[in-house]
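Hey, I'm writing a tutorial for new members on how sequence and structure tokens pair up, and I'd like a real worked example in the thread rather than a made-up one. If someone can provide the structure for the chain below, I'll link this post from the tutorial.
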Amino acid sequence: MKIQDIIATDDQNAIVAEMQTKRYIATPDIKAAEKALDPGQHDVFNKGLRPDKKVRVDPEDVDENTTKVVTESGETKPGFRYEPVARIGLDIPKLIVNRHASMIFGNEVGLICDPSDENQKTVLSVMNKIRNAVKEKTINRKVAKILFSCKEVAELWYAVPVDRNHPEKRSAKYGISTPFKMRCAVLNPMEGDQLFPYFDETGDMIAFSRFYYRQDQQLKKHTFFETWTDEEHMVWERIGSGYQPIEGFGDTMNPTPQENAIGKIPVIFGHQDATEYENVMYLIERLEKLLSNFADTNDYHASPKIFVTGQITGFSKKGESGAILEGDEGSTAQYLSWANAPESVKLEIETLLKFIYTLTQTPDLSFDSVKGLNLSGVSLKLLFTDAYLKVLDHREVFDDYLQRRYNLLSAFVGQMDVTLRDAADQIEIEPEIHPFVVTDDAAELQMWQNGNGGNAVMSLRTSVQGAAHITGVADVDKELEAIQEETDARNAFSLSEPTDIMDSGDDEGAKTGAQATQTTADDKLTGNAE
């Protein structure tokens, strides 16, 4: 579809305005997301919501930090100063985001594909090389963190020359000869990208636009608006109160969109209805307030205090051992203690943490939580059931998201090598997400071995390769040769070692004993033995 098919006008301002109108989804609150992810912006640090403590100061104790109170007559009355209160912020929202991103993309995404011919095998191979070159595992985690933090994200795929100074230069890095290499840019709303998907009445995205900002060498900020359809690409710059096509896209009077050669919008857009931490922000704020108040209480009451009844006539000196207090008859002194309040605070803190993890389906993997566990096999999987269910919820977004990515990549491969275009159009690739799983390797191996009747479930080579990250083996072939040499040596030793059948002391007796043994065995087989 061409831009003129969406809005038939030559007014560039009208085109830019139209491309922002068909989101049909709420614009994310970036300020709220930034506040949640930055503990320094939480309410506990807001002096309007949590003011410092106002402390009364007698006139004789007034110092440079004290506000004096002077009456109209010039009399100085007790003044006051502000004592800073404790402010404890917790980075729990970011922990929730990072942990969910690790759960869904802790392992590499697999591709389910059954190539029907050599060209399709080549397409699949090229795509895997592209995925490795752009570090797709890192991109996946970055995309997930942005989506979980502010509800939407996008990625832009584009091809650049292998050598910008020599555009004709070709490379076989991907297994085919091509003058291009692939790049992927992640569009992050929290870094200034404003995303505008344009949906038709059926919910299909027929165009995608974004606002973004760039600074020139004089640090002047320029605002750009960029639009893609499956056929065209156009960029405008904001000049004053209007928009003008930038160089390479025609002039103000005759804008000329560039052709989109791959026939697909080169942008993958992802959206979810709420951030991962949105439903527990009140609990987090309550926990921060509770910890801050408790810290203030400790500042005032952690040191021992003595309550005295009557008149104390003598005090011990600081550091004096066996110190005593002297007082008049009937006077008493006792330490003040806070018996019940700390337990109630401890209970509320533990309860808040429990509900924060439970409501967000976040596994609590802190050291104190796992140090006493001695689970194996099925028990480990059951422990992480809630987190795995959350991964299934995330797959409602990411299954489609990744499917669009690989459809787009196959289209790029068809353009990079025209001989593969038909294969790229026909190939069917399905992404397979492998979430992070805590397993007991020994128990799982035993399960598969039992299912195979107790026989071996892998070759020696596979075992050596699988253990390489533990043993540090770098060359599997050399290790197999060493194992074979040791095995041959043990077998040779066992075959050459003599075994005495009878301890008779002479060779003749041994031969006689052996013959007698053989005769007895033959008689048993023929039935002649008594």
